[in-house]
Specification:
- This protein has 301 residues and is of the alpha/beta class.
- It has a single domain (2-164, 217-278), classed as TIM Barrel (Alpha-Beta Barrel), CATH 3.20.20.70.
- 52% of the residues lie in helices and 12% in strands.
- It has an eight-stranded parallel β-barrel with strand order 1-2-3-4-5-6-7-8, surrounded by six helices.
- Helix 1 (10-18) links the parallel strand 1 and strand 2 (24-26).
- The structure holds SN-glycerol-3-phosphate.
- SN-glycerol-3-phosphate binds next to helix 7.
């Protein structure tokens, strides 16, 4: 699995690159704004992005801001032209740039993906929330699709009436296996008292209890990625899946178990991945047991 770092903070990128585990970088306009603001006018945004592209060992995803296909194509080409002389660049295009659903822009993302890809420009399809969207992006020729795992977890928890900050924190792991078993329990209890299959199928009680724990058959961000990979493997799509909107190290582990091509991981999650209580305890014990004779082994004669 390749690891991208999901940040625009140059120091974080440099540190993670020095650990030898970074294969690329993903950014968005909010991350870049935050990083450049912190430099209080000492560097222009354009130069700052050049620095990121220079230090990254692999593709840096940069996002367009237009929403019409022609705008996104123009901006994508411009970003590519400006920054690809300094390193590898991928252009982030939203799968559906429509903001309130009533615009005629639903398919402009696909048009931009098709066009930029046919020009040989790598496209990272962003804001992917369903396997269907991922399938369409792959058909349009995207180099990458980025399913937003953490945001799907947020959405499922919100559907169940859970509030961020109160019932769960942003970095909390969503136990999708527990959710699935709880749903099965609700269904089997209903089955035990039902007299016909029709009765269960039509029961609004069963549906409201069981259906709020998933998003149209998707039980979590990990489940979303599982299903996208299943589709891509069934048809040998070349498009690579970037597990995005990662919130904790257990999600990274589960994505790796699935064989996802890439996970884009925030700096704080990368730092968590190296930690374990028993590792530190083991280190403390070893250090306590170093006797002078052992220390002498390392002394230069
Ligand atoms: O990788 C996408 C990321 O930048 C969004 O993450 O945590 O805001 O959902 P998040």
């Amino acid at each position: 699995m390749k690891i991208f770092i999901d940040t625009a903070e140059l120091e974080e990128i440099k540190q993670a690159v020095s650990w030898g585990i970074v294969d690329g970088v993903t950014t968005n306009p909010s991350l870049i704004k935050k990083a450049v603001d912190r430099r209080k006018g000492k560097i222009s945004m354009e130069d700052y992005i050049k620095e990121i592209v220079k230090v990254s060992p692999g593709p840096v995803s940069l996002e367009v801001i237009g929403r019409r296909a022609d705008e996104m194509i123009k901006q994508g080409m411009l970003l590519h032209e400006k920054f690809s002389p300094f390193g590898e660049v991928a252009i982030k295009i939203p799968i559906n740039p429509s903001v309130n659903g009533d615009e005629n822009l639903d398919f402009d993302g696909l048009k931009a993906i098709r066009h930029l890809s046919s020009e040989g420009i790598s496209v990272n399809t962003t804001l992917v929330m369903t396997p269907e969207q991922a399938l369409l992006a792959a058909k349009a020729g995207a180099t990458y699709v980025s399913p937003f795992a953490g945001r799907i977890d947020d959405y499922i928890r919100a559907n169940m009436g859970m509030k961020i900050g109160k019932d769960f924190q942003k970095g909390d792991y969503l136990d999708h296996e527990l959710l699935r078993s709880a749903r099965n329990k609700v269904l089997s209890d209903a089955m035990a008292s039902a007299t016909s299959i029709r009765e269960i199928y039509k029961s609004s009680l069963v549906h409201s209890a069981a259906d709020r724990s998933h998003d149209n058959g998707i039980y979590s961000g990990v489940d979303l990625v599982t299903r996208i990979l299943r589709i891509f493997r069934a048809y040998n799509f070349k498009t690579e899946v970037i597990a995005a909107s990662i919130r904790n190290s257990r999600q990274v582990r589960e994505m790796a178990e699935l064989g996802v091509h890439i996970a884009t991981v925030p700096f704080n999650v990368l730092k968590d991945m190296i930690k374990h209580y028993k590792t530190s305890e083991g280190m403390r014990r070893f250090m306590d047991d170093v006797v002078p004779q052992y220390r002498e082994l390392f002394m230069e004669k």
